[in-house]
């Protein structure tokens, strides 16, 4: 009980009922304000304890209201911090109790995360042979509309893994699981295992994470994808350089983008469109420089004649045909997204930062100019409204910094074309002169480390666009490449390729290297 309450009402406790009775009494002129303040405080405490206070700094000095305003709360939980301040010192006691509660939650989460969990899981590749897999040191590292991502350690090998937990609709097969089980490439994150679990409530979120997990229902089934763990993303690296007001070294940009295009060439040759290419989905091992494409939650086998949703792909990286509402698009939407990523790494910021779908198109028109009617028809034949102001295209040299290599600018221009079929293919991008430095013998990273393996092409990759093989593989490695893969020579592979990547983009329902149809 604060001194002000004792002096004002001669009370030994905060009797809210008593104060309510005297609120309109002229002998107690401040009673109405105090009653309102205590009611706010009571409601605030109820909401705060119901949702928990999400704040990483448990040693917040003197519980300053200004700092508390930056606490992240669950949507819908609007705690009135001014009410706490008006509670005449009671907030200090409330905060001390809450700190104890948060410490207990941390201890509980730590104990839950260190326990060993054993599940019956199926290997990601190969035959369905369920086996017991044990993991420990579980902690939440991310969440979103898709579900929750945990980091864990496999007990048998001490290898770190990422476990992506998503709600499984019992009526359908999980498209992401089906696609990932078919993919095996050095630049695509590997699916180690998968298993199903019931809707047990997850352990408490550690206090140093400002997120909440949705309550899970007991009768729901969840799919758990056990993936190889890679610590960084291209997004984090780009943001680090941007905050330091520096540009990413051009050799790093070449290394990252080359591996991205190589992964896209592989999945596109199988008729798979990722549909969410962005820096956040490009995992990066900072020690080796290896990039791996992840998050196939939006990916799909594109079949000619089968319609698709147009509201797909993150806005900054959304191809113009999607903005025009196309529902029969091709894998070239990934090529546009990759061009946006390349431009962003060169600029240090997104090239088309639209606030909405319409504004996104405006940002594109500012650079590329107004699309012609023929270009719009190529993007979406069903689009009939052509009411756009006529704006001339902006020279690419003026879009980028003065020291940007001309080969990089030329590659961006080839990627960011209105007409999907005119865009360069991923494998043609790998063969572009911008990446010639990677093919030079003895080239190293700025740190002095060697580049990761970049030319270990499989027979399937070499059969995608055989005419490019002489460029893709450095001259001194071509004979070794054929021997290592046990594949055909350059000439025989050219004659045995049933389809090129150009056809894969225009008709994703092509046959793969073995001749079987890709669904």
From TrEMBL:
Keyword Nucleotide-binding carried by entry: yes
Gene Ontology terms: cellular component: axon; cytosol; nucleus
Annotated stretches, region: Disordered: 479-519
Residue ranges the record marks as coiled coil: none
Keyword Transcription among UniProt keywords: no
Domain Protein kinase: 135-435
Entries under PROSITE patterns matching the protein: PROTEIN_KINASE_ATP, PROTEIN_KINASE_DOM, PROTEIN_KINASE_ST
Residues bound to ATP: 165
Pfam family, one: Pkinase
Biased composition (Polar residues): 479-495, 509-519
One Gene Ontology molecular-function label: protein serine/threonine kinase activity
SMART domains: S_TKc (SM00220)
Biological process (GO), any one: regulation of microtubule cytoskeleton organization
Keywords carried by this UniProt record: ATP-binding, Kinase, Nucleotide-binding, Serine/threonine-protein kinase, Transferase
Protein family (similarity comment): Belongs to the protein kinase superfamily. CMGC Ser/Thr protein kinase family. GSK-3 subfamily.
Protein name per UniProt: Protein kinase domain-containing protein
């Amino acid at each position: 009980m604060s001194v002000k309450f004792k002096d004002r009402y001669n009370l030994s406790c905060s009797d809210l009922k008593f104060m309510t009775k005297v609120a309109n009494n002229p002998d107690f002129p401040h009673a109405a304000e105090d009653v309102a303040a205590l009611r706010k405080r009571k409601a605030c405490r109820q909401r705060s304890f119901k949702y928990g206070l999400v704040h990483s700094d448990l040693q917040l000095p003197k519980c300053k209201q200004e700092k508390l305003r930056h606490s992240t709360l669950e949507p819908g939980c609007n705690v009135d911090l001014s009410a706490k301040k008006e509670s005449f010192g009671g907030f200090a006691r409330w905060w001390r109790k809450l700190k104890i509660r948060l410490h207990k939650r941390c201890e509980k989460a730590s104990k839950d995360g260190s326990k060993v969990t054993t599940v019956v899981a199926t290997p990601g590749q190969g035959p369905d042979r369920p086996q017991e897999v044990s993991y420990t040191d579980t902690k939440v590292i991310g969440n979103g509309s898709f579900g929750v991502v945990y980091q864990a350690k496999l007990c048998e090998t001490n290898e770190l893994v990422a476990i992506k937990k998503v709600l499984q609709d019992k009526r359908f097969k999980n498209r992401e699981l089906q696609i990932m089980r078919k993919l095996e490439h050095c630049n695509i994150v590997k699916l180690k295992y998968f298993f199903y679990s019931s809707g047990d409530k997850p352990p408490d979120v550690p206090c140093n994470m400002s997120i909440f997990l949705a309550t899970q229902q007991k009768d729901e089934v969840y799919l758990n994808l056990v993936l190889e763990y890679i610590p960084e993303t291209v997004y984090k690296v780009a943001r680090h350089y941007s905050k330091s007001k520096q540009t990413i070294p051009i050799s790093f940009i070449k290394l990252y983008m080359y591996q991205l295009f190589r992964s896209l060439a592989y999945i596109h040759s199988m008729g798979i469109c990722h549909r969410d290419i962005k820096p956040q989905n490009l995992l990066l091992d900072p020690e080796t420089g290896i990039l791996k494409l992840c998050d196939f939650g939006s990916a799909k086998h594109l079949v000619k004649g089968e319609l698709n949703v147009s509201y797909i792909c993150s806005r900054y990286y959304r191809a113009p045909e999607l903005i025009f509402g196309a529902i029969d698009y091709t894998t070239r939407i990934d090529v546009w997204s990759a061009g946006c990523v390349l431009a962003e790494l060169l600029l240090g910021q997104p090239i088309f930062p639209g606030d909405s779908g319409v504004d996104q198109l405006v940002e594109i028109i500012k650079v590329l100019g107004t699309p012609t009617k023929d270009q719009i028809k190529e993007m979406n034949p069903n689009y009939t409204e052509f009411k756009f102001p006529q704006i001339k295209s902006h020279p690419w040299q003026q879009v980028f910094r003065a020291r940007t290599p001309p080969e990089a600018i030329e590659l961006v221009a080839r990627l960011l074309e209105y007409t999907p079929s005119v865009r360069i293919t991923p494998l043609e991008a790998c063969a572009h002169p911008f990446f010639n430095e990677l093919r030079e013998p003895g080239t190293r990273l700025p740190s002095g480390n060697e580049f990761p393996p970049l030319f270990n092409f499989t027979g399937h990759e070499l059969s995608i666009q055989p005419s490019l093989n002489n460029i893709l593989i450095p001259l001194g490695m071509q004979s070794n490449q054929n021997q290592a893969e046990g594949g055909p020579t350059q000439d025989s592979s050219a004659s045995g390729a049933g389809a090129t990547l150009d056809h894969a983009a225009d008709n994703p329902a092509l046959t793969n290297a073995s001749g079987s149809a890709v669904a």
